[in-house]
Write a structure and sequence with these properties.
It is elongated and about 95 Å long. By secondary structure, it is an all-alpha fold. The chain has 15 helices and no strands. It is 74% helix and 0% strand. The chain starts with 8 loop residues before the first helix and ends with a helix. The chain has three domains: 89 residues; 96 residues, no CATH class; 141 residues, Glutathione S-transferase Yfyf (Class Pi), Chain A, domain 2, CATH 1.20.1050.
Length: 363
C-alpha cells in the first residue's frame, strides 16, 4: 500500500477499531505525558510511540496488548501520512461526538464510587457490631467460667504470694491456668478470632486478680525503685527541650514537636493491667510518632529517627512504674511478641536504657 492507494472502508474501519481498542486497554493520556516531545499526528512519531508501548507491555507480560500493538504497527507501516491523518481526524470526530457520553460515564463512575464508599461504611459498621456482639457474649461466658474456677484462681494467687515461686514459674502458671480453663470448653464451636478474643478476656480477668503480685513481685522495693526513677525523670524533663544535643533529633522534625498524642498514649500505660494491653499502648505511642514524623515534607522516618523522639516522649510523659512495666512485659509476654510489636518494644526498652544512662552520668 502507498500514499496514492485507495483505502477501502473495511480497512479504515479495522484500523480505526484497533486504535480505539488500544486506547481502551491502556491509560493512553497518562503514558503520553511522559513522551510529549512526540507528535502523534506524524506517522514516524506515532510509530515510535507504538514501539514504546510495545516495549512496556512486553516488560509487564501483557500479551494481548502486545499482540494488538504489533498488528497496529504492521498496518501503520504500510500506510501513508495522509491516510493516517484521515484516521486520526475520524477518531477526533468520534471523540467529540461521544463527549456527552463520556461525561455521563464519568458522572456514573463518581456515583458508583460514592455508593461503594457507603457500602464499605455499612460493612465496617456491621463488622464493628459483630465484634462488639462477640465481645459481650464472650465476656458473659468468661464471668460464668471464672465463677466455677474460683478455687483454682485462689490457688494461683497463693503460689504468686509464695516467695519460693520463681519468676519463670509464675509466667508458666498463668499460661497453664489459661490453657486449662479454655481446654474445658468446646472450642470447636468457636472461630479462631473468637478463641483469640476469649483468651484475651480471660487473661484480663485473671491478670487483674494477680496484678499487684505479678507487677511488683518484690513489693515495696519495686515501687520505691519506680518512684525514684519517676522523680529523676521529672527533674530531667524540666530542663529538656526537643532541640537538646543529648537527643540529637533531626531539625526537620521540630515542627511536629512535642508529639502530644504519643505522650497521651504513654500516660495511659498504668491504666492497663495485662502485658498484652501495655504492649498495645506502647505500639500506639510509637505509631503516632512515626505517623507524625512521616508528615514532614520529603521525609520517610526510620528507626534512627524514631528512637531520639521516643526518648523525648518517654521523658516528657514520665509514665509511672516504667521499670516494673518492662520487667512485667518481659516476664509474661516477651515470647508472644512478633513483628512491629516486638520492634517497637525493643525501641521503647532502648529509650528507657538511654534515659537511665543520662541520669547516671554525673555531668
Amino acid at each position: 500500500m502507498n500514499n496514492d492507494s485507495i483505502v477501502d472502508i473495511d480497512f479504515l474501519s479495522d484500523i480505526h477499531s484497533k486504535i480505539y481498542k488500544l486506547i481502551s486497554l491502556i491509560d493512553l493520556f497518562h503514558v503520553y505525558r511522559r513522551y510529549r516531545f512526540l507528535n502523534l499526528l506524524n506517522k514516524n512519531d506515532f510509530l515510535m510511540f507504538l514501539k514504546i508501548l510495545l516495549s512496556e507491555s512486553n516488560d509487564t507480560n501483557e500479551i494481548s496488548i502486545s499482540v494488538l500493538i504489533m498488528d497496529i504497527i504492521r498496518i501503520v507501516q504500510d500506510m501513508g501520512q495522509e491516510e493516517l491523518s484521515n484516521i486520526f481526524q475520524q477518531i477526533e470526530i468520534d471523540w467529540k461526538c461521544r463527549s456527552f457520553y463520556i461525561i455521563y460515564q464519568l458522572k456514573s463512575h463518581q456515583y458508583l464510587l460514592q455508593k461503594l464508599k457507603q457500602i464499605d461504611s455499612v460493612q465496617q459498621s456491621l463488622r464493628k457490631d459483630h465484634s462488639l456482639t462477640d465481645f459481650i457474649i464472650i465476656s458473659f461466658l468468661v464471668r460464668l467460667i471464672l465463677d466455677k474456677q474460683e478455687p483454682n484462681i485462689q490457688e494461683l494467687i497463693r503460689k504468686f504470694r509464695d516467695p519460693s515461686t520463681l519468676t519463670d514459674e509464675k509466667a508458666s502458671l498463668v499460661q497453664r491456668s489459661l490453657d486449662i480453663i479454655i481446654g474445658q470448653l468446646k472450642t470447636q464451636l468457636f472461630t479462631d478470632e473468637q478463641l483469640a478474643l476469649l483468651r484475651q478476656i480471660l487473661e484480663r480477668h485473671l491478670m487483674n486478680r494477680i496484678y499487684l503480685l505479678a507487677f511488683y513481685p518484690n513489693g515495696d522495693i519495686d515501687q520505691l525503685r519506680d518512684q525514684i526513677l519517676h522523680q529523676q525523670i521529672s527533674q530531667l524533663s524540666s530542663n529538656l527541650s526537643h532541640n537538646s544535643k543529648l537527643l540529637n533529633i533531626p531539625t526537620k522534625y521540630f515542627t511536629t514537636s512535642p508529639w502530644p498524642s504519643a505522650q497521651a498514649e504513654l500516660l495511659l500505660l498504668s491504666a492497663y493491667k495485662t502485658p498484652r494491653d501495655k504492649i498495645q499502648c506502647i505500639y500506639r505511642c510509637c505509631s503516632h510518632i512515626m505517623t507524625l514524623l512521616g508528615t514532614t515534607q520529603n521525609s520517610i522516618p526510620s528507626a534512627d529517627d524514631l528512637l531520639p523522639v521516643l526518648i523525648f516522649v518517654v521523658i516528657k510523659s514520665n509514665a509511672r512504674s516504667i521499670l516494673s512495666t518492662i520487667e512485667y512485659v518481659n516476664t509474661f509476654y516477651l515470647n508472644e511478641m512478633a513483628g512491629e510489636q516486638s520492634y517497637y518494644w525493643t525501641q521503647f526498652c532502648s529509650a528507657v536504657e538511654f534515659i537511665k544512662t543520662i541520669l547516671n552520668d554525673p555531668q
